[in-house]
């Protein structure tokens, strides 16, 4: 009876100790009763999210049949979970009853801060949807960027807090709606030019060549020290997530830059035809529109975890057979975006 509850979460290889004591009581005329205790003094295993180290806890069951029900306020802890970036000190408070898996609260230390989940109920029926809220408290967003494959192209130092309301639907998958994050302290952003697409930079005037304005916008994003950063997070179709950043700060390159022009250059306007250094301290107001393929990102993380455990990749699903006169339809691409699409002002 317990196996269906854990088989989707506890996968091989698993090492450690797990104990269970249970009993059934009945009388000639009364209804049978049951109870039990699951003891986990220490268990390492592979979960769908990654390798788990040091799972511990004791779970009191007040019923084993016909429904599995626990006493209130059960607790499990985990030393670490490797999900591409290390997460430590997982703490989960929960109960199981006829309504489902009731999570009173859970938290994990990640990115130098805390990621927690507000109370919710996960139905035992896997066909039912549920919703909840993930809360970030002083989490280093740069760690997420570093683990997403852009570490050599994007450097982000941003400690953020915020809320990510979500809905999990078995048919539609995970959807984030009206998520909001904000930096709690100044930080820095550096984006290499080859990551950016569709730069729209304004404020140069009608007579200023667009290439010069775009070049200044690129310089602004290569060495940006910000005082204000916010992000609106929303799910899109086909497993994509939109993250719309709003950033205000200034240009701070490693070496101080100045823009010096002669009177003759100002009169002839020849300076408009050459590259110009963006002066240090230039104020910047940036809108950065990024799109992440969440499904592909999660799949890549799972593939890395399988490789770490020496597991083989699952065989690809064979394509359905088609008749000789049937042409396959070509749908929209769902691979990763080439990079963020910024708009600098």
TrEMBL record:
Residues 331-345 have a biased composition (Low complexity). InterPro entries: YdbH. Pfam families: YdbH-like. It comes from the Bacteria. Residues 306-345 are annotated as: Disordered. This is Dicarboxylate transport domain-containing protein. The lineage of its organism: Bacteria, Pseudomonadati, Pseudomonadota, Alphaproteobacteria, Caulobacterales.
